[in-house]
């Protein structure tokens, strides 16, 4: 039995299949459903869990090369929220692009983890190193 790290077996399985330069999406509660992409829905209620909770949890055993996020995230959120994302990623480069462009990356992802996050434009496309 696992005592530490990611306890969710579906997320463990998904993470183990992500290879060099593959991508993984962590989305908010309202992100569209993509039928051909494995989706693990861990939303419980509003803001539980949040995108940053999942990001923090997977960083322990997942090497992130870069992250893509929506430009609208910067315009729609407070400096504290923006800073929290930057701090969660430390030295990982973040590319902010229009939300419509970000969504074009989703069909190429290995999988998607849907959260209960209500933060505006909090969706992330994470590329493994």
Describe this structure in words.
- The model has no long low-confidence stretch (mean pLDDT 95).
- This protein starts with 8 loop residues before the first helix and ends with a strand.
- It has helices at 9-17, 51-59, 71-76, 79-89, 99-105, and strands at 23-27, 38-41, 64-70, 94-97, 111-114, 124-128.
- 33% of the residues lie in helices and 22% in strands.
- It has a six-stranded mixed beta sheet with strand order 2-5-1-6-3-4.
- The protein has 129 residues and is α/β, with parallel strands linked by helices.
- It contains five helices and six strands; from the N terminus they run H-E-E-H-E-H-H-E-H-E-E.
List keywords for this structure.
129 residues; alpha/beta
Low-confidence stretches: none
Shape: globular
Report the sheet-strand fraction: 15-25%
Q: Give the helices and strands as they follow along the chain.
A: HEEHEHHEHEE
**Major sheet: order of its strands?**
2-5-1-6-3-4
Write down the overall mean pLDDT: 95
- Per DSSP E runs of 2 or more residues, the count of β-strands stands at 6
Q: Tally the helices.
A: 5
Question: How helical, in percent, are the residues?
Answer: 25-40%
């Amino acid at each position: 039995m696992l005592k530490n790290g990611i306890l969710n077996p579906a997320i463990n399985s998904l993470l183990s299949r992500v290879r060099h330069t593959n991508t993984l999406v962590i989305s908010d509660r309202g992100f569209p459903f993509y039928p051909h992409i494995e989706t693990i829905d861990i939303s419980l209620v509003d803001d539980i869990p949040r995108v940053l909770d999942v990001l923090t949890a997977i960083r322990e055993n997942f090497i992130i090369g870069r992250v893509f996020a929506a430009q609208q995230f910067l315009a729609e959120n407070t400096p504290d929220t923006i800073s929290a994302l930057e701090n969660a990623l430390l030295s990982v480069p973040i590319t902010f692009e229009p939300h419509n462009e970000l969504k074009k990356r989703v069909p190429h992802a290995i999988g998607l983890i849907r959260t209960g996050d209500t933060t505006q434009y909090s969706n992330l496309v994470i590329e493994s190193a």
